[in-house]
UniProtKB/TrEMBL annotation:
SMART domains: cNMP
Taxon lineage: Bacteria, Pseudomonadati, Bacteroidota, Sphingobacteriia, Sphingobacteriales
InterPro entries: cNMP-bd_dom, cNMP-bd_dom_sf, RmlC-like_jellyroll
CDD domains with a match to the protein in the record: CAP_ED
Name by which UniProt lists this protein: Crp/Fnr family transcriptional regulator
Chain ranges of the Cyclic nucleotide-binding domain: 15-123
Pfam families noted in UniProt: cNMP_binding (PF00027)
Native source species: Mucilaginibacter sabulilitoris
């Protein structure tokens, strides 16, 4: 099992040697090529992945045939269409690797067995799920209430490692902005930082 993944888990909670053995047995390492889809609309998301290396995007295609970014994932983040994974219903999303990547993958069956067998791991996942839900709610509220400038500044502050790795048109979509608006906001932010320095 990846040392990166072990370090991540041990930072998040207390795990015994038995817990780590159960996790290693339940998971497989998978390499993913840039541009490869792990999930397409209409398929059931039957796995959860932990990103060891690389980046991913989860997006939907609108009726306007525009891509609408739902979430991103980079190192030490989890990746899946969690709604499809939990419900067993077909996904309305696509999951694509934005870079050559590596994930630790858990099938639905192994995931459920692991959560049942390791209360320590289950507690870690429950805490992470609650934190993710809160972040998702905050993002929705920001997208419907904050001006474009504030949304952009929050994104840069919250995700500095993500910002430089994701194409700007995807960031614009994630923030609920047009490309033109994001471009204008970025120029204004650069001017403000130059004046401040």
């Amino acid at each position: 099992m990846s040392p990166t993944f072990i370090d991540y888990l041990q930072e998040k909670g207390t795990l015994t040697r038995e817990d780590l053995e159960l996790i290693a047995t339940a998971s497989i390492s998978k390499r993913v090529r840039k541009g490869q889809y792990l999930l397409e609309e209409g398929e059931v998301s039957d796995f959860v992945g932990f990103v060891v290396k690389g980046s991913f995007r989860l997006f939907r295609m609108g009726d306007d045939q525009e891509e609408h970014m739902m979430r991103f994932a980079i190192e030490n983040w989890w990746v899946s269409d969690f709604i499809s994974f939990m419900s067993g219903q077909p996904s309305n999303c696509y999951l694509e690797a934005l870079e050559d990547s590596e994930i630790i993958r858990f099938s639905k069956e192994k995931w459920e067995e692991l959560l049942a067998a390791s209360p320590n791991f289950r507690r870690i996942i429950e805490a992470l799920t609650a934190k993710n839900f809160e972040a998702h709610q905050n993002r929705i509220f920001s997208n419907i209430s904050d001006p474009a400038e504030v949304r952009y500044e929050k994104f840069v502050q919250q995700y500095p490692n993500l910002y430089n790795r994701i194409p700007l048109y995807m960031i614009a979509s994630f923030l609920g902005l047009t490309r033109e608006t994001l471009s204008r906001v970025r120029k204004q932010a650069v001017k403000r930082s130059q004046v401040a320095s």
